[in-house]
Amino acid sequence: MKRIFSLTIAFLLLFTACAGTAPEELPVETETVIPVETPEETTREDIPDNLPERDFAGKAFRVISVADRTYETAVEEYTGTADNDALYDRNLRIAERFNCSIEAVSHVDPVVSAINTATAGTNDYELVSIVNYKSGKVITSKSLLNWYEIPFVNLEMPWYVKFINDSATIHDKIFTATGDMAVTSLTFTVGMFFNQKVCGDYGYTAEDLYEMVDNNSWTIDNFLQIIDAIYVDINGDGKDDINDLYGYGGSVFDDIDIWLPAFDHAVTGRDENGNLTLALNNEKTVSIVDKLVRLIHETQGSNVKGTWQAQEFFAQDLLAFAPIRFHDCFGTLRDMESEYSILPVPKWDEAQQDYRSTLTDEFSTYGMVKSVPEEDYEFVGILFEAMNAESYKTVFPVYCDIALKGKYATDLKTAEIMDRIISSRSFDAGFTFGAEVLGLVPYCVRDLVVKKSTDLASMLAQKENIVTKGLQAINETYS
Ligand SMILES: [Ca+2]
Fold first, then answer.
1. pTM recorded for the entire structure
2. Which residues, 6 or more positions from 237, have their beta carbon under 8 angstroms from its beta carbon?
3. pLDDT given at position 31
4. 304 CA distance to ligand 1 middle (Å)
5. Measured in angstroms, how far is the CA atom of residue 242 from the centroid of ligand 1?
6. Is residue 115 within 8 Å of 136, Cβ to Cβ?
7. For residues 226 and 219, what is the distance between their CA atoms, to the nearest angstrom?
């Protein structure tokens, strides 16, 4: 229970952090924006969405979500900030094109609402926005429709996040899908940020670090060696306490989860029949736990004491490296004085083919409740496709190119690395179902690391029944 409790607190804290940076508080002022011309942006605009002409006679496209995610569906007005106004303009264009309205409906628990709505058979909204790690129960309760049955939704188009939707597809069915309509699918991506001042003081320029990435030597072992040498007893009290300067800082929750994908290690796989299976039970898993115990507990330059303060320490020049979400570029890092830049999360070893980044499992994903009337499938399909396509064309470039690159990043190499991080992301269905259906099994690694234990076998044995039942429920839902 303690573990569940601490996880719950962790998630609550994350949401508290998110709530403080709603889009109206993300002032990317238009006059400070340096226009960035990218060939990619032109290309994006040029890709047709292949949607038909329709007049929906003022019909409302209603999307239910938690309060701090309503901005992904609709913002209320122009505020003069580029990101907000891009979202506002997106909806104006779509509403005019199809003669409809787009309405964000706030609810304290959209998952419970979706299950109840499906049971009651009422027509309350067109789309439910679900925080990804909370989607296990609503999926296995069979409350949602299969997106492949909805006309005009083409999940192969670039405005959907293919690597996430592939992870959510089992037996050719997908009940929750995400795309660029979910701003959080971009902003919850994690990079290994580095503080250029602190790294520079220790002899590592940005160019040195980029070169390590390029020449395939940005590995966990080299990373441990670098951060181990970065420590200063700043407050001179003779103790390595929370306010000293360290090479690395992060939480002992989500920030441990990022290393599994970074080391190209899956939580779940598929068997020969296409069923979801557990893949977190081999020798490499144990080796990874062992390596992370070294990172968290046995490295002088590692600070995990201020679990939810790594971004603040980073911004105060008290950390050289920290795993940070792009989201924090709009918040804690916004007024940071020292320059920073981004790297992929280090890989396992030089033999690993690619750097792999991930995103924290709280991004928004979307479902259609089964009680949506069949005659509305076309309306919902067209609007979902249009919302994702328009976001891809006009919202993501604003968030990426203006908010992150134009104002915050200092060089083209940073932009290149960021694109590389985005295109190399992976995501595992284990984290979609882990919290609600699979007995928190994806979090075994972080739990073992915190306990300084490599006894994965015992931990998995304790969870065997719940994982077996959970996998059965998932596979039966998708069969
Ligand atoms: Ca100290």
1. 0.84
2. none
3. 42
4. 14
5. 7
6. no
7. 11
Same structural domain, 455 and 317:
yes
Amino acid identity for residue 54 in this structure: R
- Domain count for the chain, please give it: 2
Query: How remote is the CA of residue 202 from the centroid of ligand 1, in Å?
Result: 19
Please check whether residue 211 lies inside any domain of the structure: yes
Is 211 in the same domain as 339? yes
Domain range for 314:
190-358+434-463
| Tokens found for residue 10 | 């962790």
How would residue 327 be classed by pLDDT, with cut points 50, 70 and 90?
confident
Task: Tell me whether residue 422 is in a domain.
Answer: no
The residues, any chain, with a CB within 8 Å of residue 81's CB and separated by 6 or more, are 23, 24, 26, 27, 28, 29, 30
Question: 7 lies in a domain?
Answer: no
Amino acid at 373: P
Sign of CA dihedral 72, 78, 82, 85: positive
C-alpha distances out from residue 55 to 90, 97, 100, 153, Å: 18, 8, 8, 18
Residue with tokens 């926005």: 129
Distance, in Å, from the CA atom of 342 to the CA atom of 326, rounded to the nearest integer, reads 10
> Do 258 and 216 lie in a common domain?
yes
The Å distance, Cα 235 to ligand 1 centre, comes to 5
Residues 163 and 215 in one domain: no
Tell me the CA–centroid distance for residue 225 and ligand 1, in Å: 21
> Which runs of E-coded beta strand occur in 279-386?
302-303, 319-325, 340-343, 364-367
106 and 200 both lie in a single domain: no
Output the furthest CA–CA distance in the chain (Å, rounded). 71
Structure tokens at 375: 């005659």
Q: Which pLDDT score, from 0 to 100, does residue 27 have?
A: 41
- pLDDT of 467 > 90? The answer is yes
CA of 231 to the centre of ligand 1 (A): 10
Residue 98 maps to which CATH number? Answer: 3.40.190.10
**Could you tell me if residue 284 is inside a domain?**
yes
116 and 131 share one domain = yes
Q: Could you read off the pLDDT of 28-49 as tens digits, one per residue?
A: 444 444 545 554 445 788 999 9
Going from the Cα of 193 to the center of ligand 1, the distance in angstroms, rounded, reads 24
Same domain, 354 and 377: no
Q: How far apart are CA 340 and CA 211, in angstroms?
A: 16
Q: Are residues 183 and 196 in the same domain?
A: no
